[in-house]
Amino acid sequence: MGTPVAGPGGFSQRTDKAVGNANATLPNAQYGENKDFQEIKSGAPVGTSPGGMDIGSLMGSMAPEAIGLGEPTAMDEVPVTDGAALGPGAGMEAISQPDSSASSSQMKSWLVAMEWLANQPGTSDANRNMIRNMKSMM
């Protein structure tokens, strides 16, 4: 019939070696080494694999909040294109933009330190480009 194939998750079986007995004894042990190995190994409990992680128990079920793709909309009056530049509904003005005057004045106060940083020998090109971009926005 052929070589058995390992399945996913709980059906998984290693077919390349005997995993359970892989570290039972030392291969090619010198005289007395295997006894020392067994004593050391018995000194601490061997951990067991907890198995697969159950995301549902960690995060809870998402099923109550999920809405299926075939379900009717809960917002009949809002078109799909609401907030887009084209189509019915509110345009790009519906998307709130942060107040740029406050952030611009804050960036101006940082500019001296940022320019100093950009002129340092070890500063990366990405950092220099970010500082150039920040200067162009003011």
Describe this structure as you would to a colleague.
By secondary structure, the protein is mainly α. It has a domain at about 20-40. About 35% of the residues lie in helices and about 0% in strands. Helix 3 runs antiparallel to helix 4 (about 125-135). The radius of gyration is 32 Å and the shape is flat. The mean pLDDT is about 75.
Q: What descriptors fit this protein?
A:
33% helix; mainly alpha; 138 residues
Provide a brief overview of the structure.
By secondary structure, this protein is mostly helical.
Secondary-structure blueprint:
Layout: H1 33-42, H2 55-59, H3 100-118, H4 125-136
Low-confidence residue ranges: none
Q: What pattern of helices and strands is seen along the backbone? A: HHHH
Biggest sheet layout = none
* Strand fraction: under 5%
Structural class: mainly alpha
**Cα gyration radius (Å):** 32 Å
Based on DSSP secondary structure assignment, what is the total number of beta strands?
A: 0
* Overall geometric form: flat
Instruction: Give the CA-CA distance, first to last residue.
Output: 72 Å
Percent helix among the residues?
Answer: 25-40%
Instruction: Report mean pLDDT, rounded to a whole number.
Output: 76
